[in-house]
From TrEMBL:
InterPro entries named among the record's database cross-references: BaiN-like, BaiN-like_dom_sf, FAD/NAD-bd_sf, RsdA/BaiN/AoA(So)-like_dom, RsdA/BaiN/AoA(So)_Rossmann
The name this protein goes by in its record: NAD(P)/FAD-dependent oxidoreductase
Pfam family for this entry, one: HI0933_like_1st
Keywords: FAD, Flavoprotein
Natural source organism: Donghicola mangrovi
Taxonomy of the source species: Bacteria, Pseudomonadati, Pseudomonadota, Alphaproteobacteria, Rhodobacterales
Amino acid sequence: MTYDTLILGAGAAGMMCAAHCGGRVLVVDHAKAAGEKIRISGGGRCNFTNMFAEPANFISGNPHFCKSALARFTQWDFVAMVDKAGIKWHEKTLGQLFCDNSAKDIVKMLLDLMAQAGAELWLETAVEEVSREGDLFQVRLVRSGRSMTVEAKRVVLATGGKSIPKMGATGIAYQIAQGFGLKVTDTRPALVPLTFSSQPFAGISGTAIPGRVRAGNGSFDEAVLFTHRGLSGPAILQASSYWTEGDSIHMTLCPENDWMALLRQARTDTPRRQIGTALAEHLPKKLAQLLDETWGLQDQLANTTDKRLSEVAALLADWELTPTGSEGYRTAEVTLGGIDTNGLSSKTMEAKDVPGLYAIGECVDVTGWLGGFNFQWAWSSAMACAKAIAAEG
Ligand SMILES: Cc1cc2nc3c(=O)[nH]c(=O)nc-3n(C[C@H](O)[C@H](O)[C@H](O)COP(=O)(O)OP(=O)(O)OC[C@H]3O[C@@H](n4cnc5c(N)ncnc54)[C@H](O)[C@@H]3O)c2cc1C
């Protein structure tokens, strides 16, 4: 059994590549169904791209690496594909595009395109090992409990990252890449809730507010959700990709508010109130109560100096918190880091020193922000690879 191209992983990137690379193609995946992460993504509606996608929305050891693929297959190219398939979509917020009906429509579109291209798909087939003899790759697979070897001229690593092992994530792409001498950067969970061992927010779990969260050199204005174990919500998930263990994060509560002006006004309007009580006018009551207890805001406004008010305003504008950890790969939407881009061609995704070996999608050290960017990277990197393979004939 010799294939022109053997694609490992029938996720977003693998299916997209199989649908467009031409030749005799086999896609293998150990899951029962293809595109499982697409199916569950975006609450079942798949946030398949972002209208504003650009290289600045991606984190990588080499921020220039993603530019070529993103420019040659853009969000609008994917939207055109979705339109052609008759899939209706809408913008939810911040340029995030979702299916009107179901994420399953995207999976079906990709499966239909693969079928039209004549690509074979073997499900419930686990990849065990990849080696190379002469011009051909030997891929050891376990299919329905039986071990077998398939040969191919080219192998495309598209098995994704380590996030959500329960859904079949294995990180095997890293091992295979390393086996061929490629470097793999440190990997860690990203787009993930942050946790605090003391569970300081357990009592206000479920409370959400608008926030600005900064970690490392990332800053995001979106909702923050207080949870039993710590913090979540889009602003926190985004910031988690810039956070490293031991570091603190900085949070502005309701960044639209001019806290000093609001506190001064409260002192004029309701001088007998305590600071904490005044805050409850502008924050969810439970959160105001927690801040009251944590920061000692029992002073009566009438007796509060401007200096004290500006101290409180500064805390509200720059609350420093040090998470003890994250929820980890169990719930992380993506894996940060991966196959070092220095070893890959940004034009074709082929390993520079291993002709015929390609890596696409999440297994590569390119990680998108929350909001459809990770799927866009899967589509764009897959198309760069597919076009290069198709051009070889
Ligand atoms: C809950 C959740 C929601 C998400 N929502 C969004 C969203 O709305 N928008 C967005 O842009 N991104 C979203 N993401 C991220 C997005 O799903 C991934 O970035 C994207 O799926 C990566 O595509 P991929 O093809 O590289 O990997 P995957 O889609 O993960 O595909 C990899 C495939 O390889 C298979 N595989 C792994 N190991 C083996 C092995 N040893 N043998 C055989 N097969 C193997 C897996 O079964 C899987 O099918 C979400 C992620 C999660 C977890």
